[in-house]
Amino acid sequence: DWNAGNVIAEQIEAIRAQVGNARVISALSGGVDSAVSTALVHEAIGDQLTAVFVDHGLLRKGEREQVERDYVASTGVRLITVEAEDIFLGHLAGVTDPEEKRKIIGREFIRAFEKVQLDLVAEAKAEGEPIKFLVQGTLYPDVVESGGGSGTANIKSHHNVGGLPEDLDFELIEPLRALFKDEVRAIGRELGLPEAIVGRQPFPGPGLGIRIVGEVTRERLDILREADAIARAELTAAGLDDSIWQCPVVLLADVRSVGVQGDGRTYGHPIVLRPVSSEDAMTADWTRVPYDVLARISNKITNQVPDVNRVVLDVTSKPPGTIEWE
Ligand code: XMP
Question: Where is each GMPS ATP-PPase domain found (predicted)?
Answer without folding.
Answer: 2-200
